[in-house]
Amino acid sequence: MKTLIKSIAALITITLITISLPAQTPPPPNGNQTPVEGGNTPVGGGAAIGSGIAILIALGAGYGAKKVFDFKNRKLEE
């Protein structure tokens, strides 16, 4: 019985929280400035993604190399 009451209370709480949160639109990408004022930045900001992709590729290659190394060592031990 206690678990039923706790489940119902959790369901009611989650329902009330999700209903009470209004949907909001994101702010415009240029910070409410006109293009004349110099605030016309691209959506997502002006950050370069090239170095981030290089880091992800390097981390993936390192992880793959570790997996291959561990697999070879495990095979040699057997």
Outline the secondary-structure elements.
Elements: H1 2-20, H2 50-77
Order of helices and strands: HH
| Shape type | flat
Percent of residues in helices comes to 55-70%
Task: Determine the structural class based on helices, strands and strand pairing.
Answer: mainly alpha
Kindly report how far apart the N and C termini lie. 53 Å
Q: What descriptive keywords fit this protein?
A:
78 residues; mainly alpha
Task: Describe what this molecule looks like in 3D.
The model has no long low-confidence stretch (mean pLDDT 78). The protein has helices at 2-20, 50-77. The chain is built from two helices and no strands. The protein is an all-alpha fold and 78 residues long. The protein has a domain at 52-78. The longest helix has 28 residues, at 50-77. The N and C termini lie far apart (53 Å). Helix content is 60%, strand content 0%. The radius of gyration is 26 Å and the shape is flat.
Task: Give a concise summary.
60% of the residues lie in helices and 0% in strands.
